[in-house]
Design a protein that fits this description.
291 residues, 13% strand, alpha/beta, 5-stranded parallel beta sheet, Rossmann fold, 3-stranded antiparallel beta sheet, Helix Hairpins, 46% helix
Length: 291
């Protein structure tokens, strides 16, 4: 496990909350105090909660599950895209489309439409179309790419959602809660932590703080993913070894070599598998050829 240190959190400004007049009382247990009208987040609790979130994300990835990264606010877009790409996970950094989770069947149809348009335009199939029709298709592709490009690899519902600022992403949070999908969220002092399984109290406006925590989630995914791939490789190797043994056993048991009962003196006796039958030829020996 590679969890950040207190020094890294301080340098990233993760301890700065919102103004004291703009806060949510439910975040009181995560607040250390205030200074110059700004709430100071208790980074000891941030470290503790980040470790819990790390273990959860790692465990989900170790089972081969996907984690959806969500951050549509301006400060979060670049770090979320970078870290999601680094661990090869889907992300949403533009406007959250209603039903992205709760109506995923329809969203998947739009994703398939985007893939078909990309294949069509790349293969030159649009050459038979007029210039106006090609421009129309390209415009549709760009629109779908803007909102769905980050989740093209999401072929099923994720088993975890990582959110920057649940106050901003309240629709995504609501859909995840409705489907029972666990949520890991970076929660500032003005947010409501209720309904979030893994609360990571931190500044959700500072780019460095967002990047630092997002990188930890990405590291957890990659660590869990490595465990999953190793386990799958070992399982495949074991199945291959079993398959080879089965083939060898098959060749050893040739037809006519099965265990058979062979009567001997007194009607007793059993011939072992693979033992050849002794054939006795009765009658006179063949005459030798004379010169």
């Amino acid at each position: 496990m590679s969890v950040v240190s207190m020094k890294q959190l301080l340098e990233a400004g993760a301890h700065f909350g919102h103004q004291t007049k703009r806060w949510n009382p439910k975040m009181k247990k995560y607040i250390f105090g205030s200074r110059n009208g700004i709430y100071i987040i208790d980074l000891q609790k941030t470290l503790q909660k980040l470790r819990e979130a790390y273990e959860f994300i790692q465990g989900a990835a170790a089972k081969g599950e996907q984690v959806l990264f969500v951050g549509t606010k301006r400060q979060a877009q670049e770090p979320i895209v970078a870290e999601a790409l680094r661990c090869n996970m889907p992300c949403v950094t533009q406007r959250w489309l209603g039903g992205m989770l709760t109506n995923f069947t329809t969203i998947r149809k739009s994703i398939n439409r985007l893939k078909r348009l990309e294949a069509m335009l790349a293969a030159g199939e649009s050459e038979a179309l007029s210039k106006k029709e090609v421009l129309k298709l390209e415009k549709e592709r760009q629109r779908l790419e803007k909102f769905l490009g980050g989740i093209k690899t999401m072929d099923r519902l994720p088993k975890a959602v990582f959110i920057i600022d649940p106050r901003k992403e309240r629709i995504a949070l609501h859909e995840a809660r409705r489907l029972g999908i666990p949520v890991v969220a970076v929660v500032d002092t003005n947010c409501d932590p209720e309904g979030i399984e893994y609360v990571v109290p931190s500044n959700d406006d500072a780019i460095r703080a967002i990047r630092l925590i997002a990188s930890q989630v990405s590291d957890a995914v990659m660590e869990g993913r490595a465990e999953f791939l190793t386990r799958e490789a070992e399982r495949a190797e074991g199945e291959l070894r079993e398959g080879e043994l089965s083939q060898e056993d098959l060749f050893e048991r040739l037809p006519g070599e099965e265990d058979e009962e062979e009567e001997g003196v007194g009607g007793k006796g059993k011939r072992k598998r693979g033992a050849k039958k002794r054939v006795e030829v009765n009658g006179p020996k063949p005459l030798e050829a004379s010169i």
